[in-house]
Automatic annotation (TrEMBL):
UniProt GO MF annotations: DNA binding
Taxonomy, superkingdom: Bacteria
Provenance organism: Ornithinimicrobium pratense
Keywords: DNA-binding
UniProt-listed PANTHER family: DNA-BIDING PHAGE PROTEIN, TRACRIPTIONAL REGULATORY PROTEIN-RELATED-RELATED
UniProt-listed SMART domains: HTH_XRE
Protein known as: Helix-turn-helix transcriptional regulator
Domain HTH cro/C1-type, residue spans: 1-55
PROSITE patterns, per database record: HTH_CROC1 (PS50943)
InterPro entries recorded: Cro/C1-type_HTH (IPR001387), Lambda_DNA-bd_dom_sf (IPR010982)
């Protein structure tokens, strides 16, 4: 997700504003410390122009 955001020249804060979350939430998603809810994952995918499956994958923890 980070590279898609950076390709658009957006900061974490800008992406956060676009989807209605905090910058810290975007940072936590990008660093793997937080898994977004399905609605948030779908909003991020739509905004970044990719299918959700290309951005997020299911990882066994």
């Amino acid at each position: 997700m980070r590279s898609l955001r950076e390709d658009r020249g957006w900061s974490q804060g800008r992406l956060a504003e676009e989807v209605g979350v905090s910058r810290q939430t975007i940072n936590a998603i990008e660093t793997g410390r937080f898994d977004p809810s399905l609605p948030l994952a779908l909003r991020l995918a739509q905004l970044l122009g990719r299918p959700v499956e290309q951005i997020f994958t299911l990882v066994d923890r």
